[in-house]
Amino acid sequence: MSPRAPSNNWLISAGDPNKQPCRSLRDYSSIGLTAYARWATSMPTLTRDVLVITLGETPQVVTETIWALLNRANPFVPTAIHLVTTESGRQLCQARLTGADGPLARVYEHFGLLPVEPILHLPRDAAGFEMRDVRTEAENAAFANTLTLLVRQIASDPGTRLHVSLAGGRKTMSAYAAAAISLFGRDRDELSHVLVEPAMLEQSQTSWFQPSRLFYLPEGCTYPCTY
After folding, report:
1. In the CATH scheme, what is the code of domain 29-226?
2. How far separated are the first and last CA of the chain, in Å rounded?
3. Which of 16, 140, 212, 214 could link 192 by a cystine bridge, Cβ 3.0 to 4.6 Å?
4. Band of pLDDT at residue 15, cut at 50, 70 and 90
5. Tens digit of each residue's pLDDT (9 = 90 or more) over 72-89
6. Domain ranges of the chain
7. Which helix (H) or strand (E) holds 82?
8. CB atoms within 10 A of CB 156
9. How far apart, in whole angstroms, are the C-alpha atoms of residue 146 and residue 133?
């Protein structure tokens, strides 16, 4: 027998844009949200929310983006997180972001969800070593190829909904993210940048999921629009 979806009203709102959107995930019980997370990851035919983020040396953008996605009227609940980064970015993630007591686990637990461990993708240089930075032409090509192939793979799965954040890393890394989703993104997929409020928190080393705003590039819009 196939598992049944939890009956919380917010699931209908999240999956059907014609329904009245819910106000916040906090309006619902943690038991229901946890049941949804387990059910979502067990259903191969369900539209799974997949998050891809370019990441440099500010792992805070991961929790800031997830905080904003979970707080919006039509929640995007990442059941898979892919971080495209470098060796130095991986070290920072392992030291400051992930782990049972890390900020990433805490932001999921705040909403009553099961934590999701991110998958790290590190491009390799011509010698086969994981890159520490993206500065040279060859390093840029390797990063662009890794990111583009990942986006194409996720977007080719009809059971996924993709959200790409270009908030982290060098400007070239963000440009590759925008190009990749422009090539392979579907109508339901999204691209965003995230800002925190107040602005002084952008330089904080201890702020992980303060109130955040997502900037989208919706269809037909030639400039960033805020929702």
Report:
1. 3.40.50.10770
2. 40
3. 214
4. very low
5. 888 999 999 999 999 999
6. 29-226
7. strand 80-84
8. 10
9. 14
